[in-house]
Amino acid sequence: MNAVAPNGQPPLLEVSNLVKHFPVRGGVFNRVVGQVKAVSGVSLSVQPGEVVGIVGESGCGKSTLGKCIIRLIEPTAGSVKFEGRELAGLGHAEMMPFRRAMQIIFQDPYSSLNPRLTIRKMLREAISFHHVVAPEAVDGYIDELITKVGLRRDAADKFPHEFSGGQRQRVGIARALAVKPRFLVADEPVSALDVSIQAQVLNLMMQLKEEFGLTLLFISHDLKVIERFCDRVAVMYLGHIVEMLPCADLHRHAQHPYTKALLGANPIDDPSERVAAGAGLGLTVLQGDVPSPFNPPKGCPFVGRCPVVIDRCRSEMPPLEPKASSPADGDRRTACWVVS
């Protein structure tokens, strides 16, 4: 993992060997009988102003990773540094400045909003708690924020149930931006919306990212959304990052068999693009099921579904590292014994 960007700028966020295991209890005495290994040794860095995408199938640990990074969920092990400051082990009071600096946009815009509060009361609570603006300026700040996310000013005095899904997600974005954060985790922010509304919300997020100078970790299972919105993409499978590369290189320089399978299963507008990428004309359908994170395979996590598996894959976990066959420019890393 590059600790410093090519321009010499240190990362805003640096994650090293992050692990999150959830205990499984059973038996008469409700003892711990195993662990669900949701995130297994993930390392990545995010530069200021960058948008890094996390993509993978449902259940691969994307959302858990995002919540662990901002400590909505306590990680089991590993390191998370924000602006060079280690977050692991910080108490409630010590975390307060980071709570304001790191915010999240949730996948479900309805369940993440308090149905008993108007949008104005909800936003005022966060703004006042973090002393974002002077008390007499709070209402004006809320009105400005509501209009910035594309809602009418009178929307601030309505309840969540009075909005459509797309409008609720705009409210969720306004809530995340209300405390003037520097880093956002966007946890599948458009997956619950209609396609036409997805485009509107994505365009809004791109505008706000530029206006507020935000840095984002963008979680999605949709490669088309990732390609459009992100600078780099990390591909996750069963709690591991198996490949990381610039989004501009996704079709031409993806090397991991799982990344290629995701690209092959992704419908495209122009079939000639798939030919140029060397992926064939037909859609790819992976055989077999995703292993259980309660009992993951030994060695490579993709070993049970990989079309190019070798004996070493069954016994050793490949490291995420640059490959000789990758272009020299940019941060490209692959965890595969077959790729050289």
Question: What would your notes on this structure say?
Answer:
The protein has 340 residues and is of the alpha/beta class. The chain has a domain at 255-340. The chain has ten helices and eleven strands. It has helices at 62-69, 92-101, 119-129, 138-148, 165-177, 195-212, 223-229, 250-253, 257-264, 271-276, and strands at 13-26, 31-46, 51-55, 77-82, 85-86, 102-105, 183-187, 215-220, 232-237, 240-246, 333-334. Strand 9 (232-237) and strand 10 form a beta hairpin. Residues 277-281 have low confidence and may be disordered.
Topology:
Blueprint: E1 13-26, E2 31-46, E3 51-55, H1 62-69, E4 77-82, E5 85-86, H2 92-101, E6 102-105, H3 119-129, H4 138-148, H5 165-177, E7 183-187, H6 195-212, E8 215-220, H7 223-229, E9 232-237, E10 240-246, H8 250-253, H9 257-264, H10 271-276, E11 333-334
Helix pairs in contact: 5-6
Shape: globular
| Total strand segments | 11
Uncertain spans: 277-281
Major sheet: arrangement of strands: 6-7-8-3-9-10-11
The proportion of residues forming helix, as a percent range, comes to 25-40%
The total count of helices amounts to 10
